[in-house]
Structure formats: C-alpha cells, structure tokens
Amino acid sequence: xxxxxxxxxxxxxxxxxxxxxxxxxxxxxxxxxxxxxxxxxxxxxxxxxxxxxxxxxxxxxxxxxxxxxxxxxxxxxxxxxxxxxxxxxxxxxxxxxxxxxxxxxxxxxxxxxxxxxxxxxxxxxxxxxxxxxxxxxxxxxxxxxxxxxxxxxxxxxxxxxxxxxxxxxxxxxxxxxxxxxxxxxxxxxxxxxxxxxxxxxxxxxxxxxxxxxxxxxxxxxxxxxxxxxxxxxxxxxxxxxxxxxxxxxxxxxxxxxxxxxxxxxxxxxxxxx
Length: 273
Prior knowledge:
Number of helices: 8
CATH topology: Rossmann fold
Order of helices and strands: HHEEEHEHEHEHEHEH
CATH class: Alpha Beta
Distance between the termini: 36 Å
Strand content: 15-25%
Largest sheet: 8 strands, mixed
Structural class: alpha/beta
Number of strands: 8
Radius of gyration: 17 Å
C-alpha cells in the first residue's frame, strides 16, 4: 500500500462516520483502524481486564522482559479505544519485548479531560510501568501524567499535541488532520493547552515520532528543541511522506514501518540501560 491509497481509504471511513451518532461512529472508527492491523504476533497473549476500575487490555509477548509499558491511545479525546489501537499496542509489545497495558480511558463529551487523565493515572499508580507511550491525544495524556512525577519513566510520544496549540504555532493543513481539526479539539478540551507546562520537559528520557504532513509536527519540533536546551535526552525522527493516523497502517507503509521500528528500537535501548 502507498500513502495515497491509505489516505483515500481512511478518509472514506471518516466520511462515513460523520453521518453516524457518536456511539456508532466510535464503533466504526474502531473497525476502520483495526482493518489496517496485521494479525497478532505468534505467541502474543491478549487479555481484557480492569485495573483500579479502569478497563485495560494486556498484551504479553514471548519472550518477555521485566516491567510493563503503559500505552495510551489517540483519537482526538472523543473516539478511539483499545480496539482501534489494538494493532499498535500489539506491535509495541512485540518490539519492546515487554507487556503492554493499553488503557481504555473515558472520552469526551461524556467526561472532561481531567477525568481522562485520572483514569490513566489510576492505571499508572497500580501498574508502575517502566515507560509511558501515547499517540496523538494519548501522547498529550502521557506528557501530563509524567509532568508531576519526581522521576518520570522514559516517554514514547507519537505526534502529540504540545504547547499552546494555536493557529500561529501549527503547521500547514494536511490530509486526515487539518488545522481546523486541531483547533476544534482544543476547544473541546481546553485543558490540553500546555503553553506553561511544556516549557519544561516532562521527563529526562524521551523518544518522539512524527510524520512529514501533519500540522502538529511544527510545534513538536519547536518543543523538542526547547526540551533539549533544558537538558532532556530527546530522540526524534520524522517519517517522510506520512500523515497523521498512518501509525495504524505501519505494517503496510514502508516509510512508517521504518520510522516506527526505529522509534521502538530507541525506546527499547533506553529501557535496557
């Protein structure tokens, strides 16, 4: 598959969702994202459960190193689940050779951002993960989980919203995520505006993956430069030609696959130090 085919197929799925009530749209999104995921890796154990009252899905690979990784899915804070990001979490577990705990936090508009963060915090407190990983909205949650910690574990962030998230800071419109989309998310969840919070690094050890065509990439690169200037160790790579949401199809898009594997390899090296 090439990126144009991915954009066409994913965009068509999003268009169908626009005509559906939110509960059905969420199920359609889960099905759309899952349609790009490969079968679970051989030997992977997958179990649904709860931790501190929060729904989770556990991915246990073979072989398995000690310590689990907390994964927080994206979806603009209104859609997304352990189902939509099943393929990503399974791949992460396989690549890191560690159990991955994927969090099914509650979504807007039913709850506000602090409640989403509290759901993730409840799992973090119980699981005591060796790393926090999140994509898009999940990356924002991972950053805000890490900020208050005296010694945050390594972070893995895939195209997260950072900083003030304003029209002046965003890059150009791109397929599957426009500037208007980002600003609408900001209005829906104003607590994600992190002008002050992101002036300091949320952790000393961070790996970041972005894509070339995404309005979030420009503020992320500015934030990476700032965090490095403040002394944090930040690894960064940008997948050429790729777009927001391409992580779902990383097994079928060579450029995304290469960047994702590099991201996972670098994060694994940090965990093995």
